[in-house]
């Protein structure tokens, strides 16, 4: 019996121009010129920039997929597979990065290599060279569009967001500390194929001008980041938010913006902001004059009460005054130090416990109950408190989400007290730690944060595109 042979594939007819898609790059529709005279395929790209480790370098670039539509920009990234010198038809030689991607034409798809170059003057955003053409493709040099036609209209719908893959991102973590949270941001980002760099906020400096605002670091201009994760310490809030504003000016996606960070750090303004949004909180009062001490205490209620420095963090500068006399003494002491402070009602029924709700992208994704150490009314984990997972009520969930939204924070730690009259928001933290809540809930919080970042930095749909699908 004769050996069985695989049947020859059906021949595929290509015209000299065809519609293609590059799903790996989030490009659902491109017109490609088929040129058997060229060995290597080429893709239109600009703002080409390398990143990642030397052992596995990547390239990021942007594409205008529709000729004449400069406002439609699709960001892409891929692993570099080679770098080649390519000589164009006019004799000019250019060194280009080479990437690999899946190409789809009609019902067929296969892997090809392509170089990245500026084709902004060309009608076709892509050139298909002979290396990309399969053996069973035949070229009809006198005609176009032998394969199914696509439409540029896909870029004006939400489908372009769904089609865009989770591309490799370049992410900066603004942090001065090598702590658990910073390390998790780096580990999880790199595990997802991103390049994550830790930047010391105080070593950044800025070129402030209208045409090309820049952020510099250690003598060099920082590269273009897809996203910035601020981990701004309380002691450098003013300078840290200035750096964030500079990234916002450049157009970088910042997980938490400068406005939200500033509001969360100013405890007086934070309470005023929550009051404006009708978010439940303990009765709070503030005054500048020592003559107002008695009136200030009457506004809050009866002892015991909390006296809290406006600059307090991690439970430091927070005092429980169990009697009226003790409250007067603490207030006088703080005023003697010329310190700004708040006076708050002490929620006795909370019994030294609070609930930390972690909000990402407008959703509570984890919650834990924190209990203070023996003899300490403060439940901060940094002060020896303990934590365990807790189930929260719909009211508590809604309060946490509303608080994060009021501060315009994509990532927030919202601290609640359970009182007889419902959930009371104590504080909104714009740089919540991950160690306690990941340990207590066994959830991968860093992973959820990156999922939010990846969704945010995908290209957004643009206004409707007039038909540019030439026949």
TrEMBL record:
Keywords: ATP-binding, Ligase, Magnesium, Manganese, Metal-binding, Nucleotide-binding, Protein biosynthesis, Ribonucleoprotein, Ribosomal protein. It comes from the Bacteria. GO terms for biological process: SOS response; translation. GO terms for cellular component: cytoplasm; ribosome. The keyword S-adenosyl-L-methionine does not apply. Residues 271-454 form the ATP-grasp domain. The keyword Ribonucleoprotein applies. GO terms for molecular function: ATP binding; metal ion binding; ribosomal S6-glutamic acid ligase activity. NCBIfam families: PRK10446.1, rimK_fam. This is Probable alpha-L-glutamate ligase. The lineage of its organism: Bacteria, Pseudomonadati, Pseudomonadota, Alphaproteobacteria, Rhodobacterales.
